[in-house]
Amino acid sequence: MKKISLLICTIFFCNAVVAQVNVLSNHNNLKRTGWNDSETILTTQNVTPETFTKLFAKPVDDQIYTQPLIISNVSIGGKLKTIVLVATVNNSVYAFDADTGTDTFWQTNLTPQGSRPVKNTDMTGACGGNYKDFSGNMGIVGTPAVDPVTNTLYVVARSVTAGNTYQQYLHALDLTTGAEKPNSPIFITATVTGTGDGSVNGKITFNQQTQNQRPGLLLYNGIVYICWASHCDWGPYHGWMMGYDASTLQQKYVYNATPSGYNAGIWMSGQPPSVDENGFFYIATGNGSVGTAGNLNNPINRGESLVKLNAQLQVQDFFTPNNYQELEDADLDYGSDGVLLIPDTHLSLSGSKQGFIYLIDNNAMGGMNVNNTNVLQKWDISAVPNTNNRHLHGSPVYYKNNSGQEYVYAWAENSYLKQVPFNRATLRFDVANETKGIISLPSGMPGAMLSVSSNANQAGTGILWASHPFNGDANHDVVSGILRAFDANDVTKEIWNSSMNAGDAIGKFAKFVPPTIANGKVYMATFSNQLVVYGLGTPTKRNPDNPVATLDGLRYEYYTGSYDYLPNFNALTPLKRGSIANFTLSPATTASNYAFRYKGYIDIPTDGYYTFYTNSDDGSRLYIGDNLVVDNDGLHATVENYGSIGLKKGKHAITELFFQKGGEAVLQTSYSGPGIAKQFIPNSVLFRDVYIPTVNITSPVANSVLGSNVTITTSIIDSDAVVFKVEFYAENILLGTDSSAPFQYDWLGIANGSHTITAIVYDTFGRQSTSSSVLFTTNSLGIVDQELNKGIIVINPVDRILHLISDSNLSEATIRIYDIQGRFRSIFKKEGNDIDVSNLTAGIYIVQVQINGAKYVTKFIKK
After folding, report:
1. Domain spanning 694-778: CATH superfamily
2. Cys-Cys with 275: which of 30, 511, 664, 804 at CB 3.0–4.6 Å?
């Protein structure tokens, strides 16, 4: 007992003396490595499905586009606290307790009175008036920057007045209260000399409406730097960068990327400018003017470029790829990701939507060289041949392990995670020996957002974190997200993801926002209007579905089509459906261009963590319930991938998706778990649900008029042959039961009037389904109670005209005609005694004449 207490005390003591880590801006540091190298708690040994889980979630009032920031030792209420700061597109800023999530220390909204946050619909000219890059509000988008010395948070908020005046303000907030600091806020505007797009009399003025404050803010040497791009290239616009004094909030410096040209937005998928040891800034610009007509290397217009600036925002050097015009024409702009500065070098990495990464010497960037000889290295970070679907948005991140090996990681859209070694001796990347991950991103934008954590270079602590869409294209849609953790030394080893345990789902993916890792926790922005926080704890294993009724085997749906990734099956119509014993391809009718969706249940024998494997050619995915366990999507040769999930004993819903484009077709599905060595999933543990039979009354038909004896017939859909009986009801009173096909009931001696009937089918599991009700009328003549030929005579046989002979005037009479079984055929109201019966078939009929309260009945023969 004493030893245990000592161990606990030792653990608590160690945690107490470890300094808390701050994350003060997007991607952690000025070099934008995305690496927290002071994470002393999380390791590859404890970030597992058994020990790592969602700890809490904090609701906010809108989507979070900003990376959560962590600040320790903030004095709140007389106590030192570690806070997590998040901002929403509704212009709200929150300070939460970063350790427990129990307290909201303060919340403030920065929308001026009489105004509202800017919305996507305010961008009336963006994307042809159908702007969907944002789904609603766009108030605060750029990640704030924090000064822990002065306890100040700097953030830009956008709004529009009721009179349609657009505003952007720089705010300086007190970290302890959320209150505005002196001189805050300051209205943002600027004017530069130039004849470029939107200029008036040789001046270009900052456009409050169209300029998109997308990158995170940079705080450096007492100056707050802010960058802007556009919304869907809605012009006229320019790339702007401005510097404001952090104390007075007075504007100090202004840079316009194309004063005599157009565009060149600075957006970098949300990453702030990078800063080297000498205080030079690095930004990447998108589509826009390159140089001037007579000089492509004129620094005055630098679209499609990596630009080096001094602290006064004056251009010092730049690099422009030699295919800048190709990038411009195809909207494959440079600057779709941020700039990574390789530590302890004068090298930088940046890329484009084309999927290429460029290694540049920051001391000799070389401008625009027609032969690209100023490019030290250029390589393809994507594996997708179509250049329009390989954008690199998530900025590359950096890590150095215990053996001194350095890596850079990047994960372009529609592709695989790449881990590229850096050779310190040659100052080049060993691209030939890159490690390729085994998980392919779902089809669509924007790729994965990355961060790294480790305890310095200590072995077993390096973890690469990736946030990306769970499925779907996040470009114009709000889609579900997933957080993954990989061994940073080998990204083929996934150690955890947010789909492995019940309750760990992240919610809606936050586009362009990297994970924040600090002090044993991972903080995730979401578009589900909440901050989600993960850490060490006891996960909740998934409860079984345990359906009431199952049969052996699985259900499958078979589709045909040419796919490069698993399609959205919900939007497709299967060519055929059926049941099958296991996950096999035997129902396929072609050798290529097809897909399967299998659904069923797997019987788990005991509580525990189970690993599932798919070995496939081409792509496959395996889900337990809604949890994505194995992601093996994409065009590839035979590749095995795996994933784990915590499950409780019982039957769990299992779904596997597969597509085959061409070549060899392979699908093998295995599992392992407590007491189960890795093996193909046996038929004996796979089950399919049983469809409840459905019943429909086929006779009598609705609104028919019948005699006193009726046979009720049914049509039953029973694909699994489990019908037990059918019950027949009239006015909710049981008439009778039939337990064998064709499942019908003879209802005799029915009283005249309206009747509502239903049928209920039961299966062998006791489940039931009720038919739609049918309303019909019985109107039997009751001939035994009436005197035929009383008061009315007909001359038989009748051809076309039935002539009635009567002592009464029949001009206002109601005439009803029935067949010999008493079934009503028609009603006539006519003047005179002649009735047109030409529409009746040959036979014996009964005519009923009703007039002045009297009723006369007789028979006639129709020829």
Report:
1. Immunoglobulins (2.60.40.10)
2. 30
